Amino acid sequence: MATPKPRVKVPKSAAAGEVITIKTLISHEMESGQRKDKQGDTIPRKIINKFTCDFNGQPVFSCDIDPAISANPYFEFNAKVAESGTFKFAWVDDDGSVYETEKQIEVK
Amino acid sequence: MNRKLAAIGAGAVLACALALPAALAEPVEETLSIDGVEMTTRTKAAEGLPFDDVLSGWLFREAETRALEADSFENPGMLYVERGEEIWNTVEGAAGKSCASCHDDAAESMAGVAAHYPTWDADSERPINIELQIDKCRVEQMGLEPYKFDAGEQKALTTFIKHQSLGEPVELDLGEGQMQSWWEHGKERYYLRTGQLNLACASCHEANSGQHIRADHLSQGQANGFPTYRLKQANMVSLHNRFRGCIRDTRAEFPDAFSDELMALEVYVTWRGTGLSVETPAVRQ
Amino acid sequence: MNINRRQALGLTAGAAVFAVAGLRTVPAVADVAETEAAIKAFTGGAVPEGPGKLTLEAPEIAENGNTVPISVSVDSAMSGDDMVESVMILAEDNPNPGVATFNFTPMSGAAAATTRMRLAKTQNVIALAKMADGTFYMDKKEVKVTIGGCGG
Asked: pTM to 2 decimals?
């Protein structure tokens, strides 16, 4: 695949104090470092090793990731929202790249 | 000969059901709805097929796999649909065109189109599928080379274009050009036993559909969900990749992708799924 | 019936065969000690109190070991002492036992997470929850990893 591209699903609006469900998916091979190429050489590990979700600058959820997470990593979790604001999502690659996206939510 | 084999196949299903009741796991009786669109996963078989209903492979999968396809967010195949959309809109080649330069919004121009592929291509005088249609545009309109078989871009763009027909019933026009004779050739290939295991497509997907081959629940081998996201590869798998993989697994020499042999097989296998919804990107094991 | 029988033999119809060590696709397996060490590092030596408020959900049979959906949840108020700090997932017979650690905050609202993981073979998946009061819970589920079709 080309540059990993995140997909995130957050409800557009919620009631104050509601616990919402967030779903995230990103395209990534998650090369485990366990596989060998046709020459028998080990293919170097290259995975997303960290995922974080913040809301208005405060940490909501994060995940430390090992090579046993499947290609195209999927994470589903919850968040309790008290006010309108912005969710920021970040995926950290072994090569140092950080893939980011954000979503707004309106709290009524 | 073909008819005789088919009859034996149909008999075998019955006999197996009687002799090995534990081995026959019925496909589930559930409804697949994606983004509010109900998919036809079971419908009356086209005339000439030796069973009553054609069944989507979705009905043969475990609950977790079925759930993955049913949720268009959780379905990892949708990542490739999005990638395909980017390619659709990207200018490439000497002519300075993208797919969108000629075809505008795929949601309109491609709606329902792939449900009727393969179709007859008068220029090459053979059936053309979505991959070859993309290549034809690349070469004749865009000043590009054809995609290498199973290039990531080819799979993503094919997936995107087929997805524009999500829910549309598969229906081929066998009256066009020489489609009928390609269908005949495809049918011969379907019932041809090959390889050290001496298996035809029909051995697994007709005579033993519903049985298990080791731990795999054998479907009818329908084409309506391709390219399909396979959990095994954690990637999109094209129809011709699957054809080649199946033939390879019979321990036979396998034909080239898009060869006459496999194009004929695509026409015939696609026809066998007449009436099933296009499910691209389906999720399979 | 003869043809049918031959076909059945050729296909090994109905046999649910599960992956075992030694197949070409199965890499080395982690040492049991590695799993124990990972648990100890997470709990600081404390002994988990059984599943308690923690639930690990995983399929009994995975259709393919490369993509196995799993979910964890801990029954918790997510505030004060009744707070889940993190949940660690381990797979004891993978090449390395580590899978993922989910870190929660009061803003998580609930201690629940879902992901998809790789399992090299049939084995136990382990979930460990760390509570703010120093309590640990552990839940375990065996997932059978099948090998499919002629290709394996």
From this structure: 0.87
